[in-house]
TrEMBL record:
This is DUF1735 domain-containing protein. InterPro entries: Galactose-bd-like_sf (IPR008979). The lineage of its organism: Bacteria, Pseudomonadati, Bacteroidota, Flavobacteriia, Flavobacteriales. Residues 1-18 form the signal peptide. It comes from Capnocytophaga ochracea. Keywords: Signal. It comes from the Bacteria. PROSITE patterns: PROKAR_LIPOPROTEIN.
């Protein structure tokens, strides 16, 4: 009996020690479950009208004459937007811009530009801020570097005086990033016709990298890059119609393919058109004028010297034998 009693006592002691509150196993069980973080977006303050620029920057490349070291007359315009709380009838915000410098940006020299329009009112829809570069101010400038003009918009007054309005640290500043080049830009006689079949598909530019704009039948422009030869945009040559292509960034373009009528060779085709390019969204350069020589289902116009562009514009469309022209696709390579 003594042996049984001692064995039972020993077993009880072992169990008591193994289950002591000081063991790591029980410490883990005692720890509270971690709190799952709750992610939520901060509330949008709709009680104030926010003055912002959207987009809040532009990138420009400007040509400096290698001989005179001057630039062409160059003016930038930009307009703020009013976000969050919409302005009500009779409410007016008066604004002005001031130059701003930050340490990580290289500014243009003092006196190299003028702010021609520094103030505007929300009550005048057509008003824009206007900044002009001085043609003779960059003769000694190091054009291997990029420069930035930064302007901060400020509220000068409101109607009524207690109108709830605010500006943003980031979006209420507008930046113009400027670089210069002395490379002569091709113009005048820079186009030639080639066979479209010599251009492989892998040489063509991604159609997502450019958009079209026109003052005629703009609702049909989607047909120009839908890869469908049964849908088209058309032109009335008795009106002054343009077709403008804007690239998402500076792009090297070697030529353009215009897909014309595939069925009727003598109907609704291009008799002639002028092609303009701009590398800086400021000055246009005529690349040349196409004049019909024969019917081409795919009109392939190559630039003799490839050009870096921000926009390409087709103007002065001429008819062949019908006042209307059908265009099915416009591609670039």
């Amino acid at each position: 009996m003594k042996r049984i009693y001692l064995l039972g006592a020993l077993l009880t002691a072992v169990l008591a020690i193994s289950c002591t509150p000081d063991t790591k196993e029980l410490d883990v069980l005692k720890e509270p479950a971690p709190t799952v973080p709750q992610v939520s977006n901060p509330p949008v303050d709709l009680s104030k009208t926010l003055v912002i620029f959207s987009p809040n920057e532009t990138i420009e490349k400007i040509f400096r004459d290698p001989t005179s070291k001057t630039i062409s007359a160059t003016t930038f315009t930009f307009t703020p937007k009013f976000a969050k709380r919409a302005l009500q009838n009779g409410e007016v915000i008066n604004l002005k811009i001031e130059t701003e410098k930050v340490g990580y940006e290289r500014s243009l020299p003092e006196g190299s530009f003028t702010i021609e329009k520094a103030e505007l009112s929300s009550g005048t829809v057509s008003e824009t801020f206007k900044v002009t570069l001085k043609p003779y101010a960059f003769k000694d400038l190091d054009i291997t570097k990029e420069y930035t003009l930064r302007f901060r918009v400020k509220v000068t007054s409101t109607t009524p005086t207690d109108l709830p309005v605010a500006t943003s640290d980031q979006d209420s500043a507008y930046r113009i990033k400027i670089s210069f080049t002395e490379e002569e830009y091709p113009q005048g006689d820079n186009i030639e016709l080639i066979n479209a079949d010599t251009i492989d598909d892998d040489k063509k530019l991604d159609s997502n990298k450019y958009t079209f704009d026109s003052n005629y039948k703009s609702d049909r422009l989607g047909a120009l890059k839908d890869e469908n030869y049964n849908t088209n945009w058309w032109i009335n040559t008795e009106e002054e119609v343009y077709l403008k292509t804007t690239f998402t960034e500076e792009t090297t373009v070697r030529g353009v393919i215009i897909v014309q009528n595939q069925r009727w060779a003598e109907n609704k085709t291009i008799g002639g058109v002028d092609i303009y390019a701009t590398p800086d969204n400021i000055k246009e350069y005529l690349q040349g004028t196409y004049t019909r020589d024969e019917h081409r289902k795919k009109l392939c116009i190559k630039f003799k010297v490839p050009i870096k562009v921000r926009t390409l514009t087709f103007k002065n469309f001429k008819k062949y034998n019908n006042q209307y022209i059908d265009v099915y696709e416009v591609e670039f390579f």
